[in-house]
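2 proteins. here.
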Amino acid sequence: MQYIFSTRSARLGQRWRRIVPLIMLTHILISMDHINLSFALPEIERSLAIGATLVGIAAGVLSCGALLAQVPAGYWVAKWGPRRVVTLALLSWGVLALANSGVQNATQLLIVRFLLGMIDGAMGPALLVLLSRWFPLEERARANTYWMFCIPLTSLALKPLVGLLLLHMNWRMLFVIEGIGPLLWAPLWFFLVADEPGKARWIGIEEQEELEHKFARDKARTAGTRKQNWREVLKLGSVWALGIASLLGGLGARGMNFWLPVVITGVTHQRSSTVGLIAVLPSLAGMVGLYINSRHSDRSKERKRHAGVPHLLAGFALLAAGILVVVNRNMSIGSLIIAEGCMLAAGGVFWTLPALLLSSESLGAGVGMIGSISGIGGIVGPLFMGWIMTSKEGVHGISLLMAFVGLTQLISGYIILSLRVEEQPAQAVQEAGALLAYAPSSPGQE
């Protein structure tokens, strides 16, 4: 009997060993861009003769491109499949990253960043939909969390490296390296990944049948949700509620992540290689938070508090960091590390919610819609924070920055915790979800 269970566990573990690492590597290759840009800010300012505010616009325009691309990207994923969409995105990203290394003025920088943003906007929905096709709802939070692990993993692997490289090469070489990776990986991705278990040759018939049974069970649980096309998804108040919560949470998280090296430099006055080492500490905290929060959420079958409470904790930690940066800079770094861990902890659980609101046919468009609303934070966050950093010099600007980010986290957590959630009994082994009736304009859309 023990042999039977161990064999079954090994068989079911194939999906985790094959699909998750491929998705993680793909996301890491794309996420490299954000680290390159954040560390290269001073060099880019001097090389192109532009100010911090314009650099903030360059970061925001990437999110603007993503905002425009995410909803149609969800439609493309539903029509062509995530494997093809990701392959095209990788090839396009490689070409544009190489072009980014050769920009000569602010106009060229903004154009390339906008196009990169459009590719980034297509990548997110495609990877999330791929996860939803390979992992049933009972495994979804854990699968999403492994995907979210790409954020701190990228920071752990690349921030010290990028900080060290900048001591020996200019910022343009960072984007050359960034462009080569996706171009080499795209053909491998196309041949290694299948859109769903039924199209994968390495999955046995028994495992396919077991997965089909689980997906059929998941579909039955959401049978009350009418199938919607992507135009109808735009009208759902529940999707807008999740989008606004994601916007506020992401506004602070993305902006802080972008300006983190500058903030650490302003607090510690260290060179780039040391800043790179310090910058990995929030990422370590994020990995711990992601793992603990998602595992506990899966075991307790509870989602709302696991998605909302971390944002509240992050908000209070950031408000404390804003005060401490004036009186005790070491303690302010500690509060910042805690805040980063809490912000990342919510991500894996949060992205289980759309799959419970929408049918599989509408999932790509729904995720794209939520991502598009959230993308506004990616536009406004870096720009507004850049304005804060230039209008208030020294620790006072950093203190105001942390207070602003803390406020966005508190509001995001409050919105999530205010949502109406139908709790599922633990013995039913069901995915507890945000069965939302948040917006009065769309009751009964759970």
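next one coming up
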Amino acid sequence: AHCQYGDFYPLTPYSRDEREWIGWQFHLPETDEGMVQVFMRPESPFETALFKLQGLDDDGEYTIKDYNTGLSLQVKGAELGSAGLTVKRRQKLDSALYYYRRILY
């Protein structure tokens, strides 16, 4: 919950349209960590979406955890910022929560 005090980045335009996904990111620059929340609305025809994350160090390596699946992976900041984070729908009305943190070697 401490990530919600970080910098706020909307990852989609605000919409109340039941066909649109909506998502945002909170980023703590002082610790280079944050969270992403995505809400998939019931009338959306999409099964996946890409969300380009903000505020990350392109050269940094990040661990990102999907709280729906419990799976974690390591990704470069440049990839999360340019290619984006892929979010997959599991059911008609769904949400996703991710936590990420830069790996310090």
